[in-house]
Specification:
This protein has 20 helices and six strands. By secondary structure, it is an all-alpha fold. The chain has one domain: Amino acid/polyamine transporter I (Up-down Bundle). One of its GO terms (cellular component) is membrane. InterPro entries: AA/rel_permease1. It is found in: Membrane. One of its GO terms (molecular function) is transmembrane transporter activity.
């Protein structure tokens, strides 16, 4: 791997001019270089520290695992968590390094759908539109993830502190909407608060990790190593198969390290984008993967008996109370964990609104001209941001009618994101093997590039194979895994759009790598 100072690629032939590509910028009439604008009209103002923290906070891998690990305990158990964290970490890093290399070649807000089109061996516009629907759909539904986690944490805290409280579905729905309002509103003043916001979130992400580790080691009873390394649970889920249970248990870890492309969708606002965005992706994957492995291992060794807490909606809260004996400590630590998800939601709104905006600029959405609008004063894609907020609100209201329907819709996130990574990595691998390779940017994996790409593809295939499986048998309408059918609906929607009018209206700057 190497970083160099290469700038620009004379052998890239721009076929059409459209949305942002690379580091194109122009100096405004004031001549102030600090106010340089990208070709899209958005201003580049995000510095290195902010862009690194941006990606790290969105993944929030150890935090995500901390509030969802109960699913892996009933499917796979401690052995699945321990070994699965290593596989998920190395797999996420392989995917992240592959994306970083692509980002260095072509740093663009559209990311996966632009790369798929630019590198496709045939039918580039078709692959671009299909990939765009998959990526945009995945991230729009992913925006409901943090509000649902926050709602679960808030209701769990209410139950923990008030034994008489019985949460209703409409309580959860309103909490989801309420938790969305502050991050959504802050996004309207995104530029003014970004640096302080990201630094605060990054510091809290690391400091709380250290505190949690210390609390678990100092107060928690130490488990036998055999419990951590050899205990495999497979009877609880109904599958009665060790291999299937291990594979399903792995998904809790893969979910925690998925989403490294989030920072890519901010490319038009990042200074020195060709070097800083790849670095952010690499640090996002490596730092979060390492923290996930460490936290998962420490938690397994020091969480104590789980018989009384495994059935609770947030086992970590009761674990902290059980090992410390303090309600105050459990409340404070859990509340600080919730704050990090507020930071992550703020960043997700920013990232997804840019992705929706640039896809609309390429006529990839219905009413594209409306969603491609950039507010002249705020210099933000306000209409795209409103669309994302509306989607989260509608999904939150669906929860009132059916929690199953809500969970079915947001289950699209992980499956679609993994597929969105697979296509461009496959295409860049084919270019490397068949030649000539595309002109590399400042970050290049060199001789290890092909093995890393191959490992990333194998990891993605293995993970995607497990995602449509139901977690529990026998299957009912309430525990059915709807990720596969919903993903199929998104693909059918993309195909319908293509054949009806997308093949005529969808336009994008396709880069030919000569």
């Amino acid at each position: 791997m190497e970083m160099n100072n290469q700038k620009g690629h004379p052998d890239i032939d721009m076929v059409e001019q459209g949305s942002s590509q690379g580091e194109k910028a122009e100096v405004p009439p004031s001549g102030n270089p600090s106010e340089r604008r990208s070709a899209s009209g958005l201003e580049r103002y995000i510095n290195l520290a902010a862009v690194v923290n941006f990606g790290v906070i969105i993944l929030a891998s150890w935090e995500s695992f901390a509030v969802t690990f109960q699913f892996a305990l009933t499917n796979g158990g401690p052995a699945s968590i321990f070994y699965g964290s290593f596989l998920a970490g190395f797999g996420a890093c392989a995917v992240g390094f592959s994306l970083a290399e692509l980002a260095s070649i072509d740093p663009t807000v559209g990311a996966q759908y632009r790369w798929s089109a630019n590198l496709a061996p045939a039918a580039p516009r078709f692959w671009g539109l299909l990939q765009g629907w998959i990526t945009v759909g995945a991230w729009c539904f992913a925006c409901s993830g943090p509000p649902s986690i926050l709602a679960n944490m808030i209701t769990s805290l209410a139950i923990f502190n008030n034994d008489n409280y019985v949460p209703q579905r409409w309580h959860t729905s309103l909490i989801m909407i309420a938790t969305m309002i502050v991050p959504f509103t802050f996004n309207l003043w995104f530029r003014k608060i970004l640096d302080a916001f990201e630094m605060t979130g990054g510091i809290l992400h690391i400091c709380l990790f250290i505190v949690m580790i210390v609390v678990l080691i100092v107060f928690g009873p130490r488990s036998d190593p055999e419990f951590v390394f050899k205990t495999l649970v497979w009877e609880e889920s109904g599958w009665n198969n060790k291999g299937v249970s291990w594979g399903l248990g792995l998904l809790s870890m893969t979910f925690s390290v998925t989403g490294a492309d989030s920072v890519l969708h901010m490319c038009d606002e990042v200074k020195k984008v060709r070097t800083r965005v790849p670095r952010s992706i690499i640090l996002t994957c490596t730092v979060n993967s390492a923290m996930l492995i460490i936290f998962a291992t420490i938690l397994l060794f020091y969480m104590g008996p789980l018989d009384d807490v495994i059935a609770t909606p947030l086992p970590l809260l009761w674990i902290l109370h059980g090992i410390t004996g303090s309600k105050v400590a459990a409340n404070v630590l859990t509340s600080l964990l919730a704050v990090i998800f507020f930071f992550a939601l703020f960043n997700i709104f920013a990232s997804v609104s840019r992705l929706v905006w640039v896809f609309a600029r390429d006529n990839g959405l219905p009413f594209s001209s409306f969603f491609a609008y950039v507010h002249p004063t705020l210099k933000l894609p306000v209409n795209a941001l409103l669309l994302v907020g509306t989607i989260v609100t509608c999904l939150s209201l669906i929860y009132i009618a059916s929690a199953t329907a809500f969970n079915a819709l947001i289950s699209l996130q992980a499956l679609a994101l993994h597929v969105s990574y697979f296509i461009p990595i496959l295409f860049i691998l084919l270019r490397k093997l068949r030649g000539p390779p595309p002109p590399y940017g400042p970050f290049k994996m060199g001789a290890i590039g092909v093995p890393v790409n191959i490992f990333a593809l194998c990891y993605l295939i293995y993970v995607v194979l497990w995602m449509p499986f139901p977690q529990i048998l026998p299957v009912t309408k309430d525990n059915m895994n709807y990720a596969g059918p919903i993903f199929g609906a998104v693909v059918l929607g993309a195909l319908g759009h293509w054949f009806i009018h997308g093949r005529k209206t969808f336009k994008m700057p396709v880069i030919r790598y000569e």
